[in-house]
Amino acid sequence: MSLLSASMLVSLFRLLSFFPLPVLHAIGLAMGWLVFLASPSYRRRFIGNIERAGHRAHLYKAVGEAGKGMFELPFIWCATPGRVLRTARIEGWELAGKALDAKSGLILLTPHLGCFEITAQAVALHTRLSALYRPPRKDALKPLIEGARARANLHLAPANLAGVRILLKALKNGEAIGLLPDQVPQNGEGVWAEFFGKPAYTMTLSAKLHQMSGAPIVLVYAERLSWGRGYAVRFVPFEGELGDTPQQQARAINAAMEALIAQCPAQYIWSYNRYKVPQGVAKPEETESKQ
Known about the structure:
Layout: H1 3-16, H2 21-38, H3 40-52, H4 59-71, H5 73-78, H6 81-85, E1 88-91, H7 93-101, E2 106-109, H8 116-124, E3 129-133, H9 142-149, E4 154-158, H10 161-172, E5 176-179, E6 190-195, E7 198-203, H11 205-213, E8 217-224, E9 231-237, H12 246-261, H13 284-289
Parallel strand pairs: 1-9, 2-5, 2-8, 3-4, 3-5
Antiparallel strand pairs: 6-7, 8-9
């Protein structure tokens, strides 16, 4: 992406941020269907993933929700924090507040479900939050994305060893951290664990941080309300048993994500290539043959 096109994209995002959320969601719904119909590869992955998860009944709604998720980004990233947070209704904050009051630290896990971009802002409204962040591949987009995400009380930790140290320090200080547990990690940062019945390379960092700090795990997601009425940001207890091995821990977290997605399956990003094999990682069949 050239500097000129990146600059144009930033300008477009800033312009769209002035639009009312219902308008952006209406445009997104239409564009979601346009992309779905125009791209065979996108459509195949979308249908394959949602069928594998057993949520085919929500396919048509999910297509529109995917478009809404794209077109709400200018509002979430570029509108003023006050305007954005007025659209968020927070439910179950006492789960997070209890851990923070105890100064035990807090690990918040948010899948690619609903408007996951607003969850960090909602948490940062109440407390300091350090969120794991993987920089965009296009350097020209860094000012837009990093500037949008690094807001008051919200701090970014790069997805590398230095970032892990930042997260661990935050936990030891009794603060909250946030991770996307269904994001495909890089080589050496994950293990193969089933996700909706198929092996997916899954990060082990959240379980490791829990073991090292003793900080409790809480799930959080933001359901997109109909007709552009905003979002319900919900905090949910993690009730699984992590187990002893990295594979058991990864599977337990994937199972928690599956249960969370079942709350509003039409709003998961089914087009995400969750089952890809990162460079340098042995395929799951090869991994099993070596055990």
